[in-house]
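task queued by scheduler; priority normal; single chain, no ligands, no partner chains; default sampling; output format set to structure tokens
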Amino acid sequence: MSTFVRKLMILVSMILEVHGDIYLHTPRGSNNRLNENGRGRAKANRLFDSQNNNRGGYNVGPQPMYYYAGSKLQIQWTNQHSCSDKNSHCELIIQYMCGPNIRDGTSTDTIPVDKAKCANADCNTDEKYGMHEDSTHYQRCLYRKRNLGLFTADQNMEGKNKQSAASTRQENNGRNNRYGYECTEERDYYPYWHPSPWKDIAVLTNTVGRCAHYKAESENVKSRWQCVLPLDTLEKMDAANVYAPNNAQDCANFKFPANDPQGVKGEWKESSAHGIPSPDCHETLYSRDNHLGNGVDGYANRYNWTLPDIDQGKCVLRIRYNISTNDYDGWNTDSTKNPDKNGDPTKLDLSAKFGFSNSTEAAKRGYVFKGNPAVKIFDEGNFDFQLAIDTSQFGRTFQDRSHTFSIRRRPDSLKTATIHNINVSGKRGNIVQVYPAVEYDFVPNILEMRPGDFVHFQWTGSDTNPNNNDGQGKAGSDRNNVLLLRDKNYPEGTGVQYGPAPTFGHFGNNYPKNISDSQFLGLTKDDLLKLAFLNTDIKVGPNLDEASPYFDLGPRQITQLGTYHYVSTRNNNFSNRDQKGRIMVTDVVFIDDAIGRLGGEVVLPDGFGRVQVDPGVFDGLTMLRLEVWSRSKHKVKVDQISKSLTAGEKFASDFLIMHPESVLTQPGKVIKVTLTVDTDKSNIAIYRSSETTGFSVWTKIEADIMGDMAHFKTQSGGVYVAKSHSHTVLIVALVLSLLVVVLVIVGGICYFRKNPNKWKKLKKSPKNLQDRI
């Protein structure tokens, strides 16, 4: 086997023997569903192998979603087992692919491999069947020899049907158990060593030491190779039980038929890299064991994707999920640890892990890595306990994929616009009926944006949900709408403020504001009617049944400042309740960034400065939020802070706010900050305060002032600003002091002239004078 393949063979993740499912909620994940009206999907191998519960996923909508290139899309998911803690190793890989023939299809049947069963003898273009990867991708996988350097534990990988890349430890019968045109080996291993149509978006891992490897080995930036033979030759080879080589050396020596001088030779051919940036890579967001729910902040775990600038037909999103234990070092375990024959335990030495002196002693007691071992927990006696271990699942990968969508190039009117997508997750039914899907919610649930940005309201649903699922309106139907909520009825107490601009609507209400009085985002009345009734061209009832499950308002520019609370009146009853969202339009410059142990740099806009976090400064993923309060724009905030100024002080910069305000760094580590300061002020120094203290206490920070830039280090978030102390104040103080001294002297002279006897007496008492002095 080639050195390249042997190096890559360690890239398997060991997965717990559990149903560690992952479900994609935005964009809507299919979990292999199409439009079936049962709670379970019709066919688990329609397009891909998810390894998930049959009840997951959402039905396809009547019209594919679309997003503009460069717009911001929030990806949301739930995963069943822990990430980013000490219980396990977890990795999430987010990818996409686009192409002219990618489609959802109209049938829940798996796409055939026999071309005769497809329209026009071309399965790649038969729109009846859903398709992601194409038939060529699958055939090259099916007829290629699998990577024999991989650890397959004690799984039976012998026999003709188990020698191709269509079979792996997790699915050792992949040839006979096909999932669409998916390549099993490509699905189970990352980075994969042969060409793949999938492009990497992000790798989220709690072992960030591998990030450099992931970024360098990604097919985004590194080409792939494969042994290329004509497809008709591959079919003949398959009939003769011969597989295409998987490495350069074997490919160079390959010919079929081997003894035929005219035999077809293999060509070790390079496939270009995708030619896009390497994937983002950082720590995973935390999730706890056995919990298909929200993250630690109360919202779904998520990743914000800026869509690429492409226009390549339909696209599909894939998220894969690896969850592994510490039972053995999977990254450094290869085929040398496989058993010599079927039925034997693996050659993994677990003796030290379980306190035995050597592997022979451990094996006597049954402490070996094999399927369902019986262990003796005492030295003597027949107290055997069988452990439920399936070694095929100690290398398990789960996944979900979206329904198809498109990425559109921008029209000239949107060339430089910032576009935020607002979508809907969830489906009809109460939480028990829809689980492991979710009930309705807006995504993102809270959106912060700048005036001048665009909002794109768009969502889809289905009319083929189970008819007995709870909800308003026509049985089985999804509908969503948007109206501004009524303003608050009662005071909330002090300190509740969502931003410097006015607040519209209140989450505590369930009634919408009258559209005639609504100031929702400053939208026109026509747009407000469309958001409320979904289609102004036809008459709809109060439950919106007559409208389509798909709605698209198109991008709308928002210039009106404010915080807006809105609701879907269709989904606000007892079974589907509280579908509400918040949009904050603020002129405060803000940047949200996830920075972990690898560090990172945030460059603030308009030359205000930057925040640099070196590798190792943070102990884990930190959701860093930076804001800039302008002295000229944010008068309310600045006036509040100005009350803490002492005489002669002036602000010499705008304000940098870093959240969280607590200590962020590891002991002895610092965050490096560069801040732009005024050059027309003197005696400049950097100070830190806190919103939580009402800016009542300011602490001076040691800083280097070089021209118009201040450089300083900190360990904590908080409010940072440059202050200047005027020389005029010092001069005035000195003059006043001298004036006091002069007045004392003049007063003394006048007193002793009027009382000469007092002066004579004083002169005769030098000791007394000295004491007084």
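post-processing summary
- The longest strand covers residues 89-99.
- The CA atoms of residues 85 and 286 lie 7 Å apart.
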